[in-house]
Amino acid sequence: MKSLLLLVLVFVVQTSMPVFGQASGMPQPPDRVKSIFPAGTVTYPNISYAGDTLQKHLLDIYLPANAGPHTPLVVWIHGGAWMLNDKYADMGYMRETIRGFLDKGYALASIDYRYSTTAVFPAQIQDCAQALEFLYQHADQYRLDRNRIALIGFSAGGHLASLVGLSNNNGVKEFYPPGGATHYKLRCVLDFYGPSDFIMIAGSTDTSINNVHDPVAILLGALPLDRPDLARKASPATYVDKGDPPFLIVQGEKDESVPNTQSKMLHSWLNLAGVPNELIVVPNAPHYGEMFDAEYIRDRVYATLEKYMK
Measuring CA to CA, which residue among 208, 218, 213 is closest to residue 116? Predict the structure, then answer.
């Protein structure tokens, strides 16, 4: 897991038709990636989803040109070992996938969450839940369809997307902000190379998990082998049951950061529970990169959304 510390290019767009969700003094998305989103995309940047001033409690919304009042929504959760990057990460190498979302009539919301170096688990899942609830409650304001929401996540973000999707029907109160209620339901989850079982990783031959500087240990605030209870609670596979949303799981065959057995095992658990799912192991692919923006993968992503979101 040490390679989860790899930096990922960060990208976002500010279109010619911005509607700002924050005061003018708030930071705006960088200009360098305008080409990612189709012409006419309407951008709502830096919206506070928690009602506070934390930089890591912001989200961006991107609407297709001429979006109607009930636009289906894909929520983007970035990677970065739970301690790096921001809501623009992973977009740079998934450019065609993002364009396809907007061209096919989906809105995209990209969220930030607190780093594990600032707040240990479950802060990150609480932030994701709070962002999703904000989007649900403010759907009319931003022309979103609160009943058609999907998640997509990458690496650490894939872990969080899977954990949100699988635990949402389990009522784990620690996963939600104190006193906060949630009403959203997810139509499907798109998990790109997210770890699914920290116990399985800790018991593997990869001894990096025993290092206190390992990202998982930092996330949990303890070594998984010392606190298997925390490791199990934070593992998406723990919550698999027949009531879970459909999954598309994508991982590289030669992933150097997350063993591809993580995706294979999640796929098997979902199969045993009768949850519709599909696994794509990308030949010769590493942990992340443009190989995951290939046409055949995009086709499966869009087919999954078409099947469960339309």
Answer: 218
Q: What angle do CA 79, 81, 82 make, to 5 degrees?
A: 80
- Amino acid identity of residue 3, one-letter, is S
Domain-by-domain residue ranges, the chain? Answer: 2-309
Least confident of 14-18, 86-90, 137-141, 156-160: 14-18
Nearest residue to 302 via CA among 190, 164, 165, 214: 190
- Mean pLDDT, the chain, rounded, equals 89
Are 309 and 187 a contacting pair, CB within 8 Å? yes
Look-up of token digits 């479950």: 122
pLDDT digits (tens, 9 = 90+) for 198-257: 999 886 644 444 566 899 999 999 999 999 999 999 999 999 999 999 999 999 999 999
Residue 72 CA to its chain's centroid (Å):
16
Residues 116 and 218: their CA atoms lie apart, in Å, by 6
What's 38's DSSP letter? P
pTM assigned to the model: 0.90
Among 119, 110, 57, 52, smallest CA distance to 79 is for: 110
- Please count the other Cβ atoms lying within 10 Å of the Cβ belonging to residue 232: 14
pLDDT at 32 (0 to 100): 59
- Of residues 246, 215, 250, 247, the one with CA closest to residue 231: 215
At the topology level of CATH, where does 2-309 sit? Rossmann fold (3.40.50)
